[in-house]
Amino acid sequence: QVQLEESGGGLVQPGGSLTLSCLASGFTFGIYDMSVMSWYRQALGQERDMVAIITADGGSTDYGDSVKGRFTISRDNAKNTVYLQMNSLKPEDTAVYYCNARGEVDGSMYNFWGQGTQVTVSS
Fold it and tell me: Which label site among 59, 89, 91, 104 has the fewest CB atoms less than 10 Å from its CB?
């Protein structure tokens, strides 16, 4: 059973930093290394939006416009973990942050979500 477990959320003041982690487990051997990993966020009453995405080998990343230059996504495939380093946080970054893993195995697509971790930016 595939599980994505986010951690690292919490309350931080504007201008502060947080690092989120997402530990993946239950993947068939090698499948995690082939997965595209992403972070999404959903603020209260809003749609879930993509924050950052990283390719399977970590060689390419992309970010939502609102976080470019402030957030950095990375992954450690040896630890089955993806990270989101968040700097210069703003109140509008307040949301539940979700980890996502997706890819294809033998022609079948998969798409897994974590339970989310709350990030609150407030003074």
Answer: 59
